[in-house]
Amino acid sequence: MTQQPALDFWFEFASTYSYPAALRIGALAAQRGIAVRWRPFLLGPVFKQNGWTTSPFNMYPAKGRYMWRDLSRICNAMELPFAEPPSFPQNTILAARVALIAFDEGWGEDFTAAVYRAQFGERKNIGEPETVAAIIRALGRDAGEVMNRAQSDANKLRLREQTEEAIRLGIFGAPSFVTSDGELFWGNDRLESALDWALRR
């Protein structure tokens, strides 16, 4: 039996360009018959390795201004809601931990889309537990029970190990895509190229 081509999608909830990528990848991969493995991770440890204490978009104001305008254009073209959040980057640890649970149980894509829309479409603070809890409840889940499991020592370790794996793979930003043969693609605008490469197996 021929193995289905696959692609790992590495994303960070604080990553602006991961927002459109997360909303595009499912349909595009399905059209090509590619399985997507969603890999939430944290950019903070990645930035720390480079000596950065914040997003490069904050470190270089001109780049930051361009990014927000560019993201606005992308979202407008995709008919996605967009509004620059009041603070950036936001604390995404809780959302990432919940995402691991959600993907285990088959509702991860819906949760991920809702978190991105809340942050970059509705100007909500996804670092606040109540924001994350409201998203979980809206998806028909028990927020308290899910968040308790998300904050378990075992799940915290999973996210830490997943972030360490991203670093070992040479991932330096999000969104990033890694094919089964180890080819790395970075950026929302490289999604189609990553999918095409994955088909080469």
Q: Kindly provide the radius of gyration, computed on alpha-carbon positions and rounded to a whole number of angstroms.
A: 16 Å
List low-confidence stretches. Answer: none
Question: What is the mean predicted local confidence, pLDDT?
Answer: 95
The largest sheet has its strands arranged as 2-1-3-4
Indicate the overall shape. globular
End-to-end distance, in Å?
Answer: 14 Å
**What structural class should be given to the helix and strand makeup?**
alpha+beta
Number of helices: 10
CATH homolog superfamily? Glutaredoxin
Oligomeric state of the chains present here:
single chain
If you had to describe this structure to a student in words, what would you say it looks like?
- The chain has 201 residues and is of the alpha+beta class.
- The chain has a single domain (6-198), classed as 3-Layer(aba) Sandwich (Glutaredoxin).
- It contains ten helices and four strands, in the order βαβααααααααββα.
- The longest helix is centred in the middle third of the chain and has 18 residues, at 61-78.
Quickly describe the structure:
The chain has 201 residues and is α+β, with helices and mostly antiparallel strands.
Structural key phrases:
201 residues; alpha+beta; Glutaredoxin; 4 strands; 55% helix; globular
Which secondary structure elements does this structure contain, and how are they paired or packed?
Elements: E1 6-11, H1 18-32, E2 35-40, H2 44-49, H3 56-59, H4 61-78, H5 93-105, H6 108-120, H7 129-138, H8 143-150, H9 153-168, E3 176-179, E4 184-186, H10 191-198
